[in-house]
Amino acid sequence: MLNIVIFGPPGSGKGTQSENLIKKYGFDHISTGDLLRHEIETNTQLGYLAKQHMDKGELVPDEVVIGMIDSFLDKNVKSKGVIFDGFPRTTDQAKALKEMLASYDTDVAILLDLEVPEDELTKRILERGKTSGRTDDANIETIKNRIAEYNKKTKPVMDFYAAEGKKVVINGVGSVDEIFANLCKAIDAVK
Ligand code: ADP
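# adenosine-5'-diphosphate complex -> structure
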């Protein structure tokens, strides 16, 4: 099982590139953001709780998302590869992921860090907000808070993987195809 973390700030292109990677490699994909939005749409209790945080641009509590990953792994033990998109977002989530994967005798192979400057992120998210229907994409304060949460709580996750020699920086500015080609090069090097 080849485990790939696609990483980067909100609006860096993780979702778009994950879709391309799934098509090319036939990997499975888990996006905690998508799963949380599904919980909200289907009016579950978990969705109700998540919404309180997401609408403010805050992270959802670790135990909620860790539980989601746990049940995903349980159902995908035979996967040839998994793309983790939007997870881990805190160092505690990274530690939990390591433990969960260890119970399947596997680990994260690579973290792909999509680098995009902050002013470009805000522009992209506001643009996406015109059509995404995501309330957290339409409000400038929420967007600013998501980027602040990223800088404070999520960036340290990179150090966790850098210490294991697994972090690869990818320029997230350019055409989707160009960025995709660079992601593929990095994946092919660990395959
Ligand atoms: P983006 O990367 O554009 O912020 P996501 O769909 O990945 O979009 O995340 C949307 C929101 O969902 C986040 O702002 C956060 O509130 C919540 N969320 C998603 N993944 C996690 C996670 N791993 N830990 C905590 N909160 C999360």
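# post-check
The first strand starts at residue 2 and ends at 7.
The chain has a mean pLDDT of 97.
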